[in-house]
Every structure is written in C-alpha cells, then in structure tokens.
Amino acid sequence: MAQFIDVLLRGVMLVLVSVTVGGVAWVFFVLRAAPHVKPDGATSLALRTVALAAALGAAAQVAVSLLVLGDLARHATSLPLGSYLETGFARAALVRVEFGIVLAVLARRLATRPVGRSAWAALLVGALALPQPDGSKPDAQITPVSF
After folding, report:
1. Taking the CB of residue 74, how many other CB atoms lie within 10 A of it?
2. Predicted model pTM
3. Which SS3 state, helix, strand or coil, does residue 6 take?
4. Region of residue 112 (phi > 0: left; psi between -120 and 50: alpha; otherwise: beta)
5. 89-139, pLDDT tens digit by residue?
6. Which end of the chain is more exposed for a tag (fewer CB within 10 A), N or C?
7. Cα separation of 25 and 50, whole Å?
C-alpha cells in the first residue's frame, strides 16, 4: 500500500512542479510582467497559482519523504533517521522542499506588490532549479551537471 501511495504522491508532485514552472514561464513570457510595477489582475492570479502549486509541491515532497522513512523504519529495529538523511534521495527531497517554500513565499509577495529585478530573477532561477529528476527515486544518485 505504501508503494501505491508513493506513486500517487509522486504523480501529484510532477503535476504541481509543472504548474509552478509553467506558471512562472506564463508570467514572464505571456503576461510580460515587469519589475517595479504592481501586478495587474491576470499576473496576480498567475503568481498566486504559482505560490499555491509550489507550496503544495513542497508538502507532497515532505509526504513522500516521510512515507519512505516510515517504510524504512518498518523494516528496521529503530528509526534510521541519520542514515536516511545521508542518502541522495533525502538531500534532494530537502532541497526540493526548500525551493518550493521559497518559491511560494516569493511568488505570493510578487503577486501583491511591486518589487525589483532581483526578486523577479530569483523567481525565474528558483523555478528553473525546482525540477530535480536525478533525486526523484530513493536509489538515485545526485550527479553534477558538467558543461
């Protein structure tokens, strides 16, 4: 049953990350939001949607991490928290949760008031860094990208 819930949660995460990244692209390339200008209605709605999707994506990632940790604890004599946090999966999950929370807060702030270029750049960079397919499976390795 845990594996079934894990698959469902990962599907939800995929959808939420897609909405987050797609929403940021929509705000930048279609709505053409500008720095130092209060967002109009459509831009504000898109940014609130991005904020909600990012926050829910972070929550889904936490749920997947707890599900995997619970499954490990079921097979061990004690809670293997230290060993779990040393894995690439746990580190990637923590990074994804952090990015999701930061993106949610940033998008919510951008939806309500005019801000400078640095906040818009942080939203774009954060959205591009959010998808991490290498850390999506418990047995995956985090490998650096070389150019």
Report:
1. 8
2. 0.82
3. helix
4. alpha
5. 899 899 899 999 999 999 999 999 999 999 999 999 989 887 754 444 444
6. C
7. 10
On the question of pLDDT at 140 being above 70, the answer is no
DSSP, res 77 = S
Structure tokens at 129: 């860094």
What residue ranges do the domains of the chain occupy? 2-130
Q: State the amino acid at position 21 in one-letter form.
A: V
Question: Both tokens of residue 93?
Answer: 């999950």
41 within 8 A of 74, measured Cβ to Cβ? no
Are 114 and 37 spatial neighbours (Cβ–Cβ below 8 Å)?
yes
By residue count, the chain amounts to 147
SS3 content of the chain, % helix, strand, coil (to 5): 75, 0, 25
